[in-house]
Amino acid sequence: xxxxxxxxxxxxxxxxxxxxxxxxxxxxxxxxxxxxxxxxxxxxxxxxxxxxxxxxxxxxxxxxxxxxxxxxxxxxxxx
Length: 79
Prior knowledge:
- With 79 residues, this protein is mainly α.
- The protein has one domain.
- The chain has four helices and no strands.
- The longest helix is centred in the middle third of the chain and has 26 residues.
């Protein structure tokens, strides 16, 4: 078991991870490729989160205007 872990971290990646990155097969390409895949996924998800924050956050163009009003003002407008 320990030898398998050492081979995973110290072994030569097969196939060359740059040929198939980021859509290569599993963990057989080595730890550098796996780390870069996780970082790529984190960057993509972070970009989506920032994009949605800009669109629907405070003052965003797609945000409902009633969310920016204090709670007392919306009750007065309904009467």
